[in-house]
């Protein structure tokens, strides 16, 4: 009897699938009745893609690599399906199914489950969330779907996917960002660290400004966080001006305080090693006298 090794599916999914129902079995004839809970071989042509699949992007190069691996080693982890009349609906394992088709297989090893639509959605979402190469937006959308469609609270969701509530919250907050920023996260143009920094701003225009700065200038997460702090304290225009002048927030604050004190524009010129100069312009002799009095000259 050929043994098919089970792989860890994660705490939440394992509980849903019920390990006791995943007992291994000998390969049945394809025309025989397939018993739910057993590992069986079903025709790929009979497998219908999961209508609840939360994942939409599949890397073609990665699929080709998995396909070659399946040709050489066979399918290590069976897909999971449920019987629906004369066909099987995919619960989890669409990437494995696609790669098996590319490998030219006509049959595929599968766990045959009995599951209603709610269970099917939840199992598909949990299996999807636990993938290592899932981008942050896909994870966030899966979390949101589990909350909305499976009627879960954040704490319950955390238990299902073995993550704490703060992690769940951080992912869900990404969905508050404008679509263009979400697309940048999805396409790996910016990291989740950049996104968390941008979320420090409530105004969409400010968020888009920082996003553009990160993309166009290749700002690190730390630099993005500094820019966000500057905007929070002095606004976009002053932050842009300070950046153009090469003045840090701390020096910008001193510059602004001096300008307020002398009622005129004050400029700090700061060199790399901390040396520099303060320029206080005046428009007349009377204006100079006023400034000197303020300096107790």
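-> sequence recovered:
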């Amino acid at each position: 009897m050929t043994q098919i090794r089970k792989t860890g599916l994660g705490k939440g999914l394992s509980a849903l699938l019920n390990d006791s129902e995943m007992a291994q079995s000998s390969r049945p004839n394809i025309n025989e009745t397939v018993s739910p809970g057993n590992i069986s071989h079903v025709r790929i042509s009979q497998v219908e893609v999961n209508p609840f699949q939360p994942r939409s992007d599949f890397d073609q190069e990665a699929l080709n690599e998995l396909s070659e691996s399946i040709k050489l080693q066979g399918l290590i982890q069976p897909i999971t399906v449920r019987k629906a009349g004369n066909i099987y609906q995919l619960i989890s394992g669409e990437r494995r199914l696609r790669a098996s088709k590319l490998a030219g297989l006509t049959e595929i090893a599968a766990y045959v489950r009995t599951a209603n639509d709610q269970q099917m959605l939840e199992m598909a979402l949990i299996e999807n969330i636990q993938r290592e190469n899932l981008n942050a937006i896909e994870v966030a959308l899966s979390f949101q779907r589990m909350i909305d469609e499976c009627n879960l609270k954040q704490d319950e969701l955390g238990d299902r996917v073995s993550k704490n509530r703060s992690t769940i919250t951080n992912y869900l907050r990404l969905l508050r960002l404008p679509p263009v920023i979400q697309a940048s996260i999805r396409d790996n143009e910016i990291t989740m660290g950049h996104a968390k920094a941008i979320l420090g701003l409530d105004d969409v225009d400010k968020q888009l400004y920082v996003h553009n700065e990160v993309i166009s200038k290749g700002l690190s997460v730390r630099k993005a966080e500094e820019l966000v702090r500057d905007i929070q304290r002095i606004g976009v225009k002053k932050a842009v001006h300070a950046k153009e002048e090469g003045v840090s927030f701390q020096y910008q604050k001193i510059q602004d305080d001096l300008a307020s004190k002398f009622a005129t524009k004050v400029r700090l010129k700061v060199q790399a090693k901390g040396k520099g100069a303060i320029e206080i312009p005046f428009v007349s002799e009377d204006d100079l006298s006023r400034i000197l009095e303020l300096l107790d000259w």
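The radius of gyration is 29 Å.
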